[in-house]
Design brief:
With 270 residues, the chain is an alpha/beta fold. Helices cover 17% and strands 30% of the residues. It starts with a strand and ends with a strand.
Length: 270
């Protein structure tokens, strides 16, 4: 007889096997007050992707889908919230309270956007921006006013591409991958190393194709997780070479083509 008791998903997970008579009990436990780490993901994450993230020690946190956005992107984290910094997250105005409370358990200050998400572009892009330590890249005309105020001290770079975060994979504070020439130009002006790739060859059910930023996210400073494998991507070699250049290792959460699920956002309770 075998029983597994899962107490929590925290940053430092230990395993203790207890043998009692004929019953083996596996307990997943953490130190009280220990650090937690989690990843915010789309509700359509598949079983293999979720399993592999949990295997790496992350709590998988599903963001509630928007009732306003169209189905292809209604659960994409990069449409529904924005990580302002290591202490603050801003969520869209109609975010479910349960999810906000969940973020608060990671000791984040959770703010509500001033603007409401709307179904039509460009009023669906209010939080979909690239946020690096010194620069903020977005179509600033449509950025949520509260988010813009919070980041007013940064170098604000205006681009035509409203889906800025979707279009951009953040590799480090000083390196990105994008398929948008406007984003690439803005980043290069600030001495950010850029790998510019052609668009396409990334799945996004319901639309013609997805974006490079939407199919991945940093788990650690040196570890980038992908929904799918670069072995099935037309520009996989270029991405692998760029990651190697910046000492970042890829982890493939599933075998198969890359799929855009709206980025992977890592959060810590430090």
């Amino acid at each position: 007889m075998y029983m597994q008791i899962k107490i929590s998903n925290y940053r430092q997970i230990s395993r203790l096997n207890l043998l009692y008579s004929s019953c083996i009990i596996k307990i997943l436990f953490v130190k009280v007050g220990g650090n937690m780490k989690g990843v915010i993901v789309d509700y359509r994450i598949d079983t293999a992707e979720k399993f592999n993230l949990e295997k790496l020690g992350y709590e998988v946190i599903i963001v509630p889908p928007s009732r306003v956005l169209y189905e292809a992107i209604n659960g994409h984290p990069d449409m529904l919230l924005h990580l302002v910094n290591k202490d603050t997250i801003i969520v869209h105005k109609d975010m479910e309270t349960v999810f906000i409370k969940k973020l608060s358990t990671y000791n984040y200050s959770v703010l509500i956007s001033d603007n409401k998400l709307q179904n039509n572009y460009p009023f669906d892009i209010i939080l979909n921006a690239v946020n690096l330590p010194k620069i903020f890249i977005h179509n600033l005309k449509y950025t949520d006013s509260k988010l813009l105020h919070l980041l007013k001290e940064k170098n604000l770079k205006n681009v035509k591409q409203g889906y800025s975060k979707c279009s951009t994979a953040i590799i480090s504070d000083a390196a990105i991958i994008t398929s948008d020439t406007g984003i690439a130009k803005s980043a290069e002006e600030e001495n950010i190393d850029v790998l510019l790739l052609p668009p396409g060859d990334i799945l996004l059910p319901g639309l013609n194709y997805g974006f490079i930023g939407g199919c991945c996210g940093l788990l650690e400073n040196d570890l980038l997780a992908f929904y799918g494998s670069l072995d099935y991507y037309a520009y996989g070699k270029e991405v692998l070479d760029f990651l190697k250049k910046h000492n970042v290792k890829p982890v493939f959460l599933r075998n198969g083509k890359l799929i855009d699920r709206g980025s992977i956002f890592r959060i810590y309770n430090l």
